[in-house]
Amino acid sequence: MNLPRKLLSKSLVSARQSIRNKSFVRIVEVGARDGLQNIPTNISTEVKVGLINRLSETGLKTIEVTSFVSPKWVPQMADNTRVFQEVNKKKLISYPVLVPNLKGLEAAIKVGAKEITVFLSASEGLSKKNINCTIDESLVTAKTVISKAKESNLKIRGYISCTVGCPYDGYIKPASVAKVAEALLSYGCYEISLADTIGVGTRSSVEKMLEEVLIIASPDKLAIHCHDTYGQALVNVFTALEKGLTVVDSSVAGLGGCPYAKGATGNVATEDLVYMLHGLGAETGVDLNKLVEAGRFISDYLERPPASRVNNALFSKMK
Ligand code: HMG
Ligand code: MG
């Protein structure tokens, strides 16, 4: 009984020191993209834009807007151009969009996106299901897309899915993640978001994966993206903070899921993340009350309660 308690308090101290040294944790809000892409009923463009505009008022610095993927593969994102154009963009906020190939890049450039995100997988199974190619093929595409995006002075972020487990391939070796991360960084991504797509990661498996990736990349080049399927997301985020990462992806109201990753539920809720970070003494620049309102807006529209404990707790006090 004593050992885990000691270990935990040591972790808490080192994570707190790590956070205080940097003090600011940047949150990448993915609710309007990851959160909505998996919802089978058509969500109107107005509601998507309304959600993003509300999120823009919360103090968040990075808000994913949509993805320029094939509408045959993800029909919910088919209104990508309109959503991007109609959002009331604020000066100090970055509004990245997902791009799988050159066609997506061209559409993103045409609409005026300043930041794109390429998305690959550390598992062959998800790569084939999600983007219809092998990991090696996806690296070739990403290299071309990134090189073209650089010519247009775009910022480029990278995702790696299934960094600890895959719905098709099971356990994923940390070395497979490091290999893809190293390639993406060498092509020109400024940051790689390491995703636990189906939320199977534990403190131990996430730590092992991070330790391997940190051999080839410094913590300031990495972000963590945790789905909360098994309720481990906050612990796994905490593990990443402890390793010195200061960028965390999350989704308002805990929305989220990948249509091609069976069993993937929502991301860690932004409200829960902000509450934890503020409790640790980190700054986020985010107004939690405004965030709760944005979460309510989309949850009311979807006629479901937010999958955020903090949202539910604070909302009952706000009434
Ligand atoms: P494909 O079928 O191999 O592609 O799909 P293709 O080149 O043969 O094209 C098929 C059709 O799609 C053609 O149209 C293309 O023009 C069109 P047709 O001739 O049949 O009328 N097409 C496009 N249309 C619009 N925009 C495009 C585009 N590309 C082709 N960019 C492809 C390959 C990559 C396109 C497809 O598999 C795809 O779109 N996949 C996206 C899947 C997706 O969006 N998944 C969710 C995002 S990833 C995620 O959620 C994980 C993440 O959150 C991290 C984590 O948690 O793990 C990021
Ligand atoms: Mg995701």
TrEMBL record:
Phylogenetic placement of the source organism: Eukaryota, Metazoa, Ecdysozoa, Arthropoda, Hexapoda
Organism per entry: Ceutorhynchus assimilis
Pfam families tied to this protein: HMGL-like
Domain spans labelled Pyruvate carboxyltransferase: 25-292
Protein name: hydroxymethylglutaryl-CoA lyase
Listed EC numbers: 4.1.3.4
Family that this chain belongs to: Belongs to the HMG-CoA lyase family.
GO molecular function: hydroxymethylglutaryl-CoA lyase activity; metal ion binding
Known catalytic reactions: (3S)-3-hydroxy-3-methylglutaryl-CoA = acetoacetate + acetyl-CoA
Keyword Cell membrane part of the UniProt annotation: no
Pathway: Metabolic intermediate metabolism; (S)-3-hydroxy-3-methylglutaryl-CoA degradation; acetoacetate from (S)-3-hydroxy-3-methylglutaryl-CoA: step 1/1
